[in-house]
Design goal:
The chain is built from 6 helices and 9 strands. By secondary structure, it is of the alpha/beta class. It has one domain (4-178): Vaccinia Virus protein VP39 (Rossmann fold). A 7-stranded mixed β-sheet has the order 3-2-1-4-5-8-7, sandwiched between helices. The radius of gyration is 15 Å and the shape is globular.
Amino acid sequence: MCHAACLDFGARQLTPAEVDGREVLEVGALDVNGSLRGVVQAMQPRRYLGVDLQPGPGVDEICDACDLLARFGEASFDLVLCTEMLEHARRWREAVHNLKGVLRSGGVLLLTTRSRGFPRHDFPEDCWRFELADCVRIFADLEILTLESDREAPGVLLKALKPGNFREVDLADYAVGAVEGNSAS
Protein backbone atom coordinates (compact mmCIF):
# COMPACT_ATOMS: atom_id res chain seq x y z
CA MET A 1 0.00 0.00 0.00
CA CYS A 2 1.54 3.29 -1.05
CA HIS A 3 0.48 6.91 -1.59
CA ALA A 4 1.97 9.57 -3.88
CA ALA A 5 4.91 10.57 -1.62
CA CYS A 6 5.79 6.91 -1.11
CA LEU A 7 5.69 6.25 -4.86
CA ASP A 8 7.87 9.30 -5.51
CA PHE A 9 10.35 8.26 -2.80
CA GLY A 10 10.69 4.77 -4.22
CA ALA A 11 11.09 6.04 -7.78
CA ARG A 12 13.78 8.52 -6.66
CA GLN A 13 15.65 6.16 -4.36
CA LEU A 14 15.70 2.78 -6.06
CA THR A 15 18.28 2.23 -8.78
CA PRO A 16 18.42 -0.42 -11.50
CA ALA A 17 21.60 -1.80 -9.89
CA GLU A 18 19.63 -2.49 -6.68
CA VAL A 19 16.82 -4.26 -8.56
CA ASP A 20 18.01 -5.80 -11.85
CA GLY A 21 18.30 -9.57 -11.47
CA ARG A 22 17.60 -9.38 -7.73
CA GLU A 23 15.12 -11.07 -5.38
CA VAL A 24 12.52 -8.53 -4.16
CA LEU A 25 10.04 -8.91 -1.30
CA GLU A 26 7.23 -6.41 -0.72
CA VAL A 27 5.75 -6.68 2.78
CA GLY A 28 2.29 -5.16 3.08
CA ALA A 29 1.74 -5.56 -0.66
CA LEU A 30 -2.05 -5.21 -0.80
CA ASP A 31 -2.61 -2.43 -3.34
CA VAL A 32 -5.22 -0.24 -1.68
CA ASN A 33 -4.03 3.16 -2.92
CA GLY A 34 -0.93 2.52 -5.01
CA SER A 35 2.11 0.26 -5.18
CA LEU A 36 5.80 0.42 -6.03
CA ARG A 37 5.46 -2.90 -7.83
CA GLY A 38 5.31 -1.37 -11.33
CA VAL A 39 8.31 0.89 -10.65
CA VAL A 40 10.37 -2.03 -9.36
CA GLN A 41 9.28 -4.56 -11.98
CA ALA A 42 10.29 -2.12 -14.74
CA MET A 43 13.87 -2.54 -13.42
CA GLN A 44 13.65 -6.31 -14.08
CA PRO A 45 14.11 -8.11 -10.77
CA ARG A 46 14.72 -11.86 -10.97
CA ARG A 47 11.74 -12.36 -8.65
CA TYR A 48 9.13 -10.07 -7.13
CA LEU A 49 7.02 -11.44 -4.30
CA GLY A 50 4.28 -9.47 -2.55
CA VAL A 51 3.00 -10.64 0.85
CA ASP A 52 0.20 -9.38 3.06
CA LEU A 53 -2.31 -10.59 5.65
CA GLN A 54 -5.14 -11.00 3.15
CA PRO A 55 -5.54 -11.73 -0.55
CA GLY A 56 -6.07 -8.98 -3.09
CA PRO A 57 -4.33 -6.93 -5.77
CA GLY A 58 -0.53 -7.15 -5.44
CA VAL A 59 -0.57 -10.07 -2.99
CA ASP A 60 1.18 -13.22 -4.19
CA GLU A 61 1.25 -15.00 -0.82
CA ILE A 62 -0.48 -14.59 2.52
CA CYS A 63 2.17 -14.05 5.21
CA ASP A 64 2.34 -11.98 8.39
CA ALA A 65 5.43 -9.75 8.65
CA CYS A 66 6.27 -11.54 11.89
CA ASP A 67 6.52 -14.85 10.02
CA LEU A 68 8.87 -13.83 7.20
CA LEU A 69 11.93 -15.62 8.59
CA ALA A 70 9.97 -18.82 9.27
CA ARG A 71 8.48 -18.74 5.75
CA PHE A 72 11.44 -17.59 3.63
CA GLY A 73 14.56 -18.08 5.74
CA GLU A 74 17.48 -15.90 6.72
CA ALA A 75 19.03 -13.62 4.08
CA SER A 76 16.64 -14.61 1.28
CA PHE A 77 16.01 -11.24 -0.44
CA ASP A 78 18.18 -8.48 -1.92
CA LEU A 79 15.53 -5.77 -1.64
CA VAL A 80 12.76 -5.54 0.95
CA LEU A 81 9.98 -2.99 0.46
CA CYS A 82 7.75 -2.14 3.39
CA THR A 83 5.51 0.81 2.60
CA GLU A 84 2.78 2.03 4.92
CA MET A 85 2.66 -1.25 6.84
CA LEU A 86 4.78 -0.90 9.97
CA GLU A 87 2.30 1.33 11.82
CA HIS A 88 -0.24 -1.49 11.42
CA ALA A 89 1.99 -4.24 12.89
CA ARG A 90 0.77 -4.91 16.43
CA ARG A 91 4.17 -6.56 17.16
CA TRP A 92 6.32 -3.97 15.39
CA ARG A 93 9.62 -5.11 16.98
CA GLU A 94 9.09 -8.66 15.70
CA ALA A 95 8.11 -7.34 12.27
CA VAL A 96 11.30 -5.23 12.12
CA HIS A 97 13.39 -8.22 13.22
CA ASN A 98 11.90 -10.25 10.35
CA LEU A 99 12.39 -7.46 7.79
CA LYS A 100 16.07 -7.24 8.71
CA GLY A 101 16.43 -11.02 8.92
CA VAL A 102 15.22 -11.85 5.40
CA LEU A 103 17.44 -9.11 3.92
CA ARG A 104 20.77 -10.30 2.52
CA SER A 105 24.05 -8.62 3.41
CA GLY A 106 24.43 -5.67 1.05
CA GLY A 107 20.67 -5.65 0.49
CA VAL A 108 18.42 -2.62 0.64
CA LEU A 109 15.42 -1.94 2.85
CA LEU A 110 13.01 0.74 1.61
CA LEU A 111 10.44 1.57 4.28
CA THR A 112 7.78 4.24 4.73
CA THR A 113 5.54 4.69 7.77
CA ARG A 114 3.37 7.27 9.50
CA SER A 115 4.29 9.76 12.24
CA ARG A 116 2.39 11.64 14.96
CA GLY A 117 -0.23 13.92 13.49
CA PHE A 118 -1.33 11.45 10.83
CA PRO A 119 -4.99 10.48 11.36
CA ARG A 120 -5.93 7.05 12.57
CA HIS A 121 -6.51 4.70 9.65
CA ASP A 122 -7.54 1.22 10.69
CA PHE A 123 -6.74 -1.22 7.92
CA PRO A 124 -6.82 -3.68 9.55
CA GLU A 125 -5.77 -1.72 12.64
CA ASP A 126 -3.58 1.31 13.28
CA CYS A 127 -1.21 0.90 16.22
CA TRP A 128 1.93 3.07 16.11
CA ARG A 129 3.55 6.31 14.99
CA PHE A 130 7.26 6.45 14.10
CA GLU A 131 9.38 9.60 14.06
CA LEU A 132 12.74 10.26 12.39
CA ALA A 133 14.53 9.71 15.72
CA ASP A 134 12.74 6.37 16.15
CA CYS A 135 14.00 5.20 12.77
CA VAL A 136 17.54 6.27 13.62
CA ARG A 137 17.39 4.06 16.73
CA ILE A 138 15.42 1.15 15.22
CA PHE A 139 17.65 0.94 12.14
CA ALA A 140 20.97 1.81 13.82
CA ASP A 141 22.24 -1.64 12.80
CA LEU A 142 21.77 -0.79 9.11
CA GLU A 143 23.56 1.88 7.09
CA ILE A 144 20.93 4.57 6.67
CA LEU A 145 21.30 5.95 3.16
CA THR A 146 18.27 8.26 3.17
CA LEU A 147 16.00 9.30 6.01
CA GLU A 148 13.50 12.09 5.48
CA SER A 149 10.10 13.34 6.52
CA ASP A 150 7.19 12.84 4.18
CA ARG A 151 6.40 16.30 2.79
CA GLU A 152 2.75 15.48 2.06
CA ALA A 153 1.63 14.02 5.40
CA PRO A 154 3.26 13.19 8.74
CA GLY A 155 5.50 10.23 8.03
CA VAL A 156 9.01 8.87 7.62
CA LEU A 157 10.74 7.67 4.44
CA LEU A 158 13.79 5.42 4.88
CA LYS A 159 16.29 3.70 2.63
CA ALA A 160 18.94 1.59 4.37
CA LEU A 161 21.61 -0.97 3.49
CA LYS A 162 22.33 -4.12 5.48
CA PRO A 163 26.07 -4.12 6.20
CA GLY A 164 28.31 -7.17 6.06
CA ASN A 165 29.02 -6.80 9.78
CA PHE A 166 25.31 -6.67 10.69
CA ARG A 167 24.62 -7.05 14.37
CA GLU A 168 21.00 -6.49 15.32
CA VAL A 169 20.22 -3.76 17.86
CA ASP A 170 18.23 -4.69 20.95
CA LEU A 171 14.83 -3.02 20.76
CA ALA A 172 13.19 -4.92 23.65
CA ASP A 173 12.80 -1.80 25.79
CA TYR A 174 12.37 0.74 22.99
CA ALA A 175 8.94 2.34 22.73
CA VAL A 176 7.36 4.31 19.89
CA GLY A 177 4.23 6.45 19.91
CA ALA A 178 1.01 4.48 20.24
CA VAL A 179 -2.14 5.44 18.40
CA GLU A 180 -4.68 6.60 20.97
CA GLY A 181 -7.54 4.21 21.52
CA ASN A 182 -5.87 1.19 19.94
CA SER A 183 -5.79 -2.02 21.95
CA ALA A 184 -2.09 -2.50 21.10
CA SER A 185 -1.16 0.69 22.97
